[in-house]
Design goal:
GO terms for molecular function: FAD binding; heme binding; metal ion binding; nitric oxide dioxygenase NAD(P)H activity; oxygen binding; oxygen carrier activity. It comes from Vibrio gelatinilyticus. By secondary structure, this protein is an alpha/beta fold. It contains twelve helices and twelve strands. The chain has a six-stranded antiparallel beta sheet. Strands 10-9-8-7-11-12 form a six-stranded parallel beta sheet, with helices on both faces. The longest helix has 31 residues. It is globular and about 65 Å long.
Amino acid sequence: MLNNQHIDVIKSTIPLLESAGPALTEHFYKRMFTHNPELKDIFNMTHQKTGRQSVALFEAIAAYAKHIENLAALSSAVERIAHKHTSFNIQAEHYQIVGMHLIETLRELAPDAFTQEVEEAWTEAYLFLAQIFINREDELYTLREQAIGGWKGARPFVVVSKTAESEAVTSFVLKPKDGGKVVAFVPGQYIGVKVKPTLSENIEIRQYSLSDSPNGETYRISVKKDSADNGHAGLVSHYLHQEVFVGDTIEVMPPAGDFFYVEKQAPVVLISAGVGCTPMQGMLNHLSETNKPQAVTYLHACDNANQHSFVEETQSLLTRNDWNQHVWYREGEDQQCEVTGHVGMMTLNSLANELPLQTGNFYICGPIGFMKSIVEQLTSLGVMTERIHYEVFGPHASL
């Protein structure tokens, strides 16, 4: 258990962590994958190549050290990461491996500063935090396993349909190979998909938002064929688009995620950019099926008409319920959206009179820069922060 002496020692090492920077986690990952190569089948190796995971882990370690006296400040981050971990089927033994390599990394990179006192403090601090995650993840595993249609770990699913939603996005409807039910989810959540791409040396696990409302029988994910940063191609998305067909089997983890729709008996505004529309599509279908009496507004931005996903499905839902939408195309006047005529970046000032700024709940999903802009616009228009909800892509990224 952490005591005051441990806390003081942890705080004293913050300058050391900051001076080491991401080099600390680069050394850590290299060490861990050398000694435990089996973990390459769990970690996103593309993020390793781009450096995103190294930066994310360093920031998480630094944040933990800085908030060691007030871990409540990290509660939302803990919940988000715990959900993400369950979509990889992380187990308690994985924490033991990670902890050992973290301590040895500190010892190897800072042998003079890593005294017995520092080692004891960081060992206790890591074990304390790990147990928080283990406990919460065990709760999530148990809830999903015991629910109707629930399971634990990876379960084989068959692709029963594959539909192009736009130039870059394709939807896959997945049904359990065993013919059983599937556990319910809350619109906005995602599933972990486990595959072995032809071009990969390892098993790969990726998370994809559920883009339809719950039905107890199938899941729908909508995947963008993407390229990651620094020229590293979207390995799994390309594999799904090009090599996975109707009748093929992939493995799926139960639904997870702490970004989801919550009914507040108030108007709703769904705001997305690019493939960020996928969780919004699940929410939109759910709101239509439940006959939401309050107004719903759908706002979307994408590059052009060829990149505009779910056009017919969205229009049908909005028309059926007499809900409003605005869509922006980023590329040039000749590419302006036929639905609303907007071109360029999404701006909300001109829509202020149409939006429920004082009473509505706003759900946002898209690239970091887009969401940052939308959050700033909403707050400048007087929307309270507790009514703004967003999901961030990437390894522990934040606004």
